[in-house]
Design goal:
The structure is a single chain. By secondary structure, this protein is mainly alpha-helical. The protein is 57% helix and 12% strand. The chain has two domains: 75 residues, no CATH class; 129 residues. The two termini are 46 Å apart.
C-alpha cells in the first residue's frame, strides 16, 4: 500500500511536469519517461496539448504487470519485496448481527419452540391444558422477544428482530386457532394424533424456526419467506 502511494505521488509529479512542458510544445516528439531513475524512451506522447504515457512502458519502468482486456486495463504493482501479486477480488461482506442480539435471539427462538411443543402436545394427545398454562408459555416467549428487542443495536439486528416478531405472531395466531377448535370440540384439530401432519400453518412455523436458529447462530443476517 505504501509503495502504491509513493508511486501515485510520483506519477502526479511526472504528469504535472509533462503538462507544463506541453504548454511550450503542442506537437513535440515523443518524450522519455523516467521513474525512480529508470529511463524508458519514447514512453510519453503529446497529443493536442495533453501528455499520455504508454501503459506498457509504465509497467516496464515500475516492474509491474499489465493486462489489457476488452473493457479494462489492469496494472498490478510489485509489493515491497518486489513480487507482483494479482489483484484480489474481495466478496461483499455479509451483514453481521451483533453478538448480544444473536445470543438473545437464540434464546427467544428456544422459548417459542417450547411454546410450540406444548401446543403440539395438546393437539396430539388431547391434553386438557388450561388457559393459564398455555399463557405462561406465551408470556415466556414474549419476554424473550422483548430481551432480543433491547439487545438489537444495528440495522441487521432490527431486520432479524422483525422476523422473530413475525414468528411470535404466527405462533399466537396458531395458538388462538387451537383454542377455538377445542372450544368447538373440533377433534380433527385437537385430538387426532395425525391432525398436524398436513397443517400448513405449523409447517411454516417449523421451517421458520429452523431458519431463525441457523441464521442467529451463524451471526449473519438472512431472510426467508416462511418467516413472513
Amino acid at each position: 500500500m505504501k509503495n502504491q502511494r509513493v508511486f501515485a505521488s510520483l506519477l502526479f509529479v511526472i504528469f504535472a511536469l509533462i503538462s507544463a512542458l506541453s504548454i511550450h510544445a503542442q506537437n513535440a516528439a515523443d518524450k522519455v519517461l523516467i521513474v525512480n531513475g529508470k529511463t524508458v524512451a519514447n514512453a510519453v506522447r503529446e497529443i493536442d496539448g495533453h501528455s499520455y504515457v504508454d501503459i506498457e512502458a509504465l509497467a516496464q519502468a515500475t516492474s509491474a504487470e499489465v493486462s489489457i482486456q476488452s473493457n479494462r486495463v489492469v496494472l498490478t504493482l510489485p509489493d515491497a519485496s518486489g513480487n507482483v501479486r494479482p489483484p484480489v477480488t474481495v466478496a461483499p461482506e455479509q451483514p453481521h448481527l451483533s453478538r448480544q442480539f444473536a445470543s438473545a435471539g437464540v434464546a427467544a427462538v428456544a422459548d417459542m419452540r417450547e411454546w410450540r411443543a406444548e401446543l403440539t402436545m395438546m393437539v396430539n394427545y388431547g391434553l386438557a391444558v388450561g388457559a393459564s398454562a398455555s399463557q405462561n408459555y406465551r408470556d415466556r416467549a414474549d419476554a424473550g422477544l422483548q430481551e432480543a428487542a433491547v439487545a438489537a443495536s444495528t440495522d441487521e439486528d432490527r431486520d432479524a428482530l422483525q422476523l422473530l416478531r413475525n414468528q411470535f405472531n404466527a405462533l399466537t395466531d396458531w395458538a388462538n386457532q387451537i383454542a377455538a377448535a377445542r372450544q368447538s370440540l373440533n377433534g380433527a384439530k385437537t385430538v387426532d394424533p395425525n391432525g398436524l401432519e398436513n397443517d400448513p400453518t405449523l409447517s411454516k412455523i417449523n421451517t421458520c424456526s429452523r431458519f431463525l436458529n441457523r441464521m442467529l447462530t451463524s451471526g449473519a443476517f438472512a431472510d426467508d419467506a416462511n418467516c413472513h
